[in-house]
Here is the input.
Amino acid sequence: MGMPESYVVLDLETTGLSAQNDRIIEIGALKVQGGEIQEKFQKLVNPEREIGGFITRLTGITNEMVADAPTIEEALPQFLEFAGDAVILGHNVGFDLRFVSAACERLYGRSFSNDFMDTMMISRRLFPQERHHRLLDLVIRFHIAETEEHRALSDALQTQACYRYMVQYMDGHGISMECVRAQGPRLPSYYGNKCSARDIVADDGAVVDETCECYGRVFVFTGTLAKLERKDAMQRVVNRGGICKDGVTMKTNYLVLGSNDNSMLIKDGKSTKQKKAEELRERGQDIRILSEQDFYALVGLDG
Here is the structure.
């Protein structure tokens, strides 16, 4: 697929990082035709559960704001009608698509199967010299904005602006979307999720708390984290007295699961590291497999 003439930009805010256990609290989307925004969609969603303090501080969305908002049963059909069969554009879009698909599965017994483009992956392949490719990194690097609001519609607008910048960059350098996509899994080793654990050392001045659950424990990461670059997540572990390794062994205490959605090398949803950890657990080894949200709670980053 090349660059589509029309597409829908999508961004979600959610109660957490697990598409199975957490819920959507805001949907923001843009209908784009010929590079111009034709229509906007924004809707708060009542998750029918408590919104935690961390999410409220991040997004500004409170329990009071969604108390009278429509539930996902009402909001999802409206978004699906808005999106139709359009290509979905998003930043780290696998995160958003997992939540939409999970909601579709719960309500309709089917997944959400629209084709998609990911501005994070495009950035990684266009600018391999850059180590960070969060939406905030892009809007600052491309001189679009100085901050990311973490609200669905504003983030969708920033994603569209970043995409337009990169399309113009590709046009100016004779790079086709097919060329960007063809790079596939052959990503350089200096991408954020390819950093080596042996390169991570505690920051100067880091105060280690020996009562912290991380202290002396061995962590391994797999997949792409939604909220942090892997290097940054490893740094949080090491600063708390933990140990990071690149592979799962009998000494591993925690395996932290990121998303494998953008990996063309994984066919069944589980990385080699996850399969090894599950195998060792079945043999009686004490290895905990953590979601990204569980990892943040463990290291004290969820509020």
User: Anything to note?
Assistant: The domain at 192-298 is CATH 3.40.50.10190 (Rossmann fold). The chain has two domains: 6-182, 192-298.
